[in-house]
What does this fold into?
Amino acid sequence: MTVGVLAHLFGCLPVHTLAEQVSAKGFRHVQLALWKAIDGYDFTKPGKLSPGLASMIGEAFDKQGVSISVLGCYVHLYDRNEEQRRTNIERFKELLRHARSFGCSIVAAETGTNPGGDYNEQDWATMRNTLRELAEEAERWGVYVGMEAANGHLIGTAPELRRMLDEVPSSNIGVVLDPGNLLKTSNFEKQNDVIEEAFSLLGERVIAAHAKDRTLNEQGELVTVPAGFGQMNYELYMKLLNQYKPGVQIIMEEAKPDQMAFSKQYIENIRQNAV
It folds into this structure.
């Protein structure tokens, strides 16, 4: 299975131009966030999509030999402003309804953040209610909600995501795994433990994976870089990914166009040799 890419790393472009550029870089699948990647349509409010428009976008990529592996939905899922939260939920549900017309079966998101990391039990309860509603919609359409844990978000660790999965026990919720999102300065030296814990708690629920890298800069701060430019243990990551979910699609993050070929080959070489 080849490595895919976040479509918006190429910028916000007309769909046919975007598909051509993705294909020219050798990628055969993308994670597509409509309002970040496709120019010419206002996808910032629900109601724009139709089966026809979704099919047209999917076909534009398909003509270039590229599939849409994941639809990215970058919205705040437990927003304390109820009106805004309802809008965000409707945007997510619209993608779930039309995912199959894109040729896709996964709509993925992180939970969202509050300024200063101010979280409480009401936020957790709101997120749980949101996820229940999204899971019900996913079940109706035979697709998946992909949840991703990310440091600094309400669900920022593998144990927190495991807790949410246990509280919303739907088989239409899966995990988009990104070990880089679980690392921080305080646990970077124990990254093997963090990666192994993530697979132990979440491995059987993984439906897609992300790939970026992390490294410590000269000031001792943890920064994000493209795969192969950092110090993350990709050998362990790929070994466990092959063990738990052979063939799962990997989507590359962070890389600029002139870094993509190196990072793609780096991931694929390690994955191929991981045992």
In short: The chain has a mean pLDDT of 96. The CA atoms of residues 212 and 253 lie 5 Å apart. Strands lie at 3-6, 29-32, 67-72, 106-109, 144-147, 173-177, 206-211, 213-216, 222-225, 250-252.
